[in-house]
Design goal:
By secondary structure, the protein is an alpha+beta fold. The protein contains 16 helices and nine strands. It has a domain at 7-12 and 93-204 and 280-360 and 395-446. The relative contact order is 0.10. Keywords: Coiled coil.
């Protein structure tokens, strides 16, 4: 999502938010192309468009997962599956590493623990065993929520999870394409529903994490990137000083200009903070929550890219550690709503935002002190690049706020079994915790606006410094011109001038 190997790999800047409410899975610019893959037999069939779910019994199942998503969602034609990149994820996955499902359970007492069979590992040689373990993966009766964190998701595991938990393909398509999404589906009063959340947030990583990243610029100067990397520098971060021939220094300067140009054009690329050697990159939080009266499930997708995104083991550990908090322990003990476990995922994104904006503020302060002593062109370009990213961050924070508001306003149908008093208490508790998140998001928005004002101030200072320097240069040029005119001045005798005026 953040970095690309070629311009064709970049995501569209304006993409429709994927949702099960859309009448067609994928939108096309050409209507004829859209309907070219429609199965006429499906249109003429008298059978209902929603097939009966499989019982997954060995006698009748016959590995139904191999036909997902068409087995459960026949409106997803092969062309639409290909367009949404689900087909690519199913067929073109990494076979050199195993897919691992990390699990953590939350019981009715609010205690977090890893089950005995806490890891499910899968590769192409273990597909049958993996399917059996996923189908039979049932939490204890006293279990409230089971969270699954998918590391290196393979195509077969994607199909198995989709078939087992009846997951709308929109969850996978929005996750694979990094499209922000939030929607509720399969609402069953008194029983439960499905919630999908895909959220893009900001994260700060050390510049050493960029060893495998490459930001492509449309400018010719970007061709020096490979040469710069060969000299030991990573993505423009000043981790290794440039020494040697003048050509190397020229490459360094050209690469810095290319990096700044690329940052201004592509706000999805990482923002380099040279002063503290950090990178601000975009990260993905993709969660599918299946809320039930008993035995809810959370599925966390993690991007299978060579990028410094949040990994499945890391988030698995973070969520498990959140269960050790006394504050949250009391909440989990008080309410049976699995939505509160989902809120801990939101807090992970909030902490990442907080750290990233703090590092950005430190870098802006460094630029303020640096701009007083210099008026370099690259510094001006860097300020413009940061402001371009700032505008993008504003939209991401707004999307974050909408996601939390969606969680607060989407009631859990499974709680209808509770008494009115218990439901009101749960709604009040959920509203309070969501308000805490919204308050923190508002604080981040204020911090971002303050930083934007500081950036404007620094840019005005740069322009003022340039104007002062230009004024001094013009003054010197004027003085030099005056001296030159004085040197060539012609002095005529007074009697000659008097005679000339008398004649006229």
């Amino acid at each position: 999502m953040v970095i690309y190997s070629s311009p064709n790999d970049r995501l569209p800047l304006f993409a429709i938010t994927l949702s099960s409410a859309l009448p067609w899975p994928i939108s096309y610019r050409c209507i004829q192309c859209y309907f070219a893959g429609v199965n006429q037999g499906q249109l003429e069939s008298v059978l209902p468009p929603v097939p009966e779910p499989c019982s997954h019994m060995p006698a009748s199942c016959n590995n139904c997962w191999r036909e997902y998503p068409q087995s459960l969602y026949p409106n997803w034609t092969p062309e639409q599956v290909r367009k949404s990149k689900i087909d690519k994820a199913i067929k073109q996955y990494r076979r050199d590493v195993r897919c691992v499902i990390h699990q953590v359970d939350v019981d009715e007492n609010g205690l977090f623990a890893v089950p005995e069979d806490g890891r499910i590992e899968s590769d192409d040689s273990l597909l049958e065993d993996t399917w059996i373990r996923i189908v039979n993966n049932k939490a204890p009766i006293a279990n409230r929520v089971r969270a699954l964190f998918i590391e290196n998701m393979s195509g077969p595991v994607l199909q198995m999870l989709g078939a087992k938990y009846n997951i709308e393909p929109f969850f996978f398509s929005s996750s694979l394409n990094w499209i922000p999404s939030r929607y509720q589906e399969q609402v069953m009063p008194g029983d439960g529903d499905h919630i999908t959340l895909c959220l893009i947030f900001l994260r700060s990583v050390p510049d050493g994490s960029a060893t495998s990243m490459s930001a492509v610029s449309p400018y010719p100067a970007a061709q020096v990137e490979g040469n710069v990397r060969g000299n030991g520098n990573v993505n423009g971060a000043a981790s290794t000083p440039f020494h040697g021939s003048p050509s190397t220094s020229t490459l360094r300067e050209d690469y810095e200009l290319s990096l700044l140009a690329d940052q201004m054009i592509d706000t999805q690329a990482p923002l380099v903070l040279k002063s503290n050697r950090r990178l601000l990159v975009l990260d993905l939080l993709s969660v599918h929550l299946i809320r039930r009266a008993q035995g809810s499930v959370i599925i966390s997708y993690h991007a299978d890219k060579d990028l410094p995104t949040t990994t499945a083991p890391y988030l698995h550990e973070r969520i498990q550690f959140a269960g050790q908090s006394v504050y949250w322990q009391k909440i989990f003990q008080t309410s049976p709503d699995p939505t509160f476990v989902l809120l801990t995922f939101m807090w992970h994104a909030l902490y990442s935002w907080d750290e990233a904006l703090e590092n950005l503020y430190t870098h802006i302060c460094s630029l303020e002190s640096h701009v007083i002593t210099t008026s370099e062109m690259t510094l001006t370009q860097e300020l413009h690049a940061i402001r371009a990213h700032h505008l993008h961050y504003a939209s991401l924070l707004n999307d974050f706020r909408k996601t939390v508001t969606f969680i607060r306003n989407t009631e859990n149908p499974a709680l209808e079994r509770l008494s009115d008093e218990e439901r009101k208490a749960n709604a009040s508790l959920l509203s309070r915790e969501c308000e805490n998140l919204l308050t923190e998001i508002a604080r981040l928005e204020k911090a971002r606006k303050m930083q934007d004002s500081r950036l404007k101030n620094v840019m005005n200072l740069v322009f003022s410094s340039v104007n002062i320097i230009d004024s001094r240069r013009m003054q010197k040029m004027t003085e030099a011109a005056a001296k030159d005119s004085a040197a060539v001045r012609l002095h005529l005798p007074a009697t000659w001038t008097d005679l000339k005026f008398e004649l006229t």
